[in-house]
Design a protein that fits this description.
- By secondary structure, the protein is of the alpha+beta class.
- It has one domain.
- A hairpin with a 2-residue loop joins strand 2 and strand 3.
- The longest helix has 19 residues.
Length: about 260
């Protein structure tokens, strides 16, 4: 019996990885895309004529029809306002909703992979369900896409050198037409000193003009950003802007 990824009950229902209220906005002729990568090696790629085919049995009826349904209902008007070009500013509450929804979606996408390769823990998934707690050391950004009409997702496992200083990161990039979101979560080795800072080097693009960070510490932002992601190349650049070679570990002593 497969367990619900959020409460460990019986996974009795198949979950649409992308909700139907979102996928129905896109023509069936568009191609949805899903890619998984581990430590620089591609695991698998999924393509389909419609994203509605991307479903996985990973949740129970109580979760699917309960807190997950409520979250979709709360975030739907926010995302639809962005897609309909009605959004002028993104307030703090909207950013928190987007961040929670994006993390939920990233965790659900993980269920496509074998369970022994999942990044997020049972405790993290349970806390998201119970109190909408976003995992520690998680960052979420959003961006505007230009000339991008499809649904897209790419998930990457980033692992530094094995040992007491290793850092494991998981980055999920998603795009829904003109709206893109990226979730990056970091899991340091248990022996790293408390207070150790971990940062990412990023590619040379002007990301401060492209991305709005909605988590942690959301604040009021104008929408859209100054610069948008152009077509497939823009989405690819966003997907690849974080890499395992660019993960920096800064000891507490070095921060003073």
């Amino acid at each position: 019996m497969r367990e619900c990824i959020f409460c460990q009950g019986r996974a009795s229902t198949k979950e649409d990885v992308w909700p139907q209220w979102l996928t129905k906005r896109f023509p069936l002729s568009d191609i949805s895309f899903m890619e998984a990568e581990l430590a620089g090696h591609k695991l698998d790629t999924w393509r389909s004529k419609t994203a509605k085919l991307l479903r996985v049995r990973c949740v129970c009826e109580n979760c699917n029809g309960g807190w997950m349904s409520r979250l979709e209902g709360q975030v739907r008007p926010v995302i639809e306002s962005i897609l309909d070009d009605r959004m002028k500013t993104v307030d703090v509450s909207s950013q928190a909703l987007i961040a929670t929804w994006a993390v939920k979606t990233a965790i659900t996408l993980e269920a496509i992979k074998p369970q022994n390769k999942w990044f997020y823990t049972n405790d993290q998934r349970r806390e998201l369900r119970m109190v909408s707690a976003i995992p520690e050391r998680t960052s979420v950004w959003i961006a505007k896409c230009v000339n991008q009409a499809n649904l897209y997702s790419a998930a990457k496992d980033l692992l530094t050198t094995h040992g007491q200083n290793e850092v494991y990161a998981y980055v999920t990039t998603m795009a829904f037409g003109s709206f893109a979101v990226q979730v990056a979560s970091i899991k340091p080795h248990m022996n790293l000193p408390k207070g150790t800072a971990i940062t990412f080097d990023v590619s040379g693009e002007p990301w401060e003009k492209v991305l709005i960070q909605v988590w942690p510490m959301p604040k009021l932002h104008w929408w859209p950003p100054i610069t948008g992601l152009a077509g497939d190349l823009g989405i690819e650049a966003l997907t690849n802007r974080l890499s395992r070679s660019g993960i920096n570990i800064i000891s507490p002593a070095a921060q003073t």
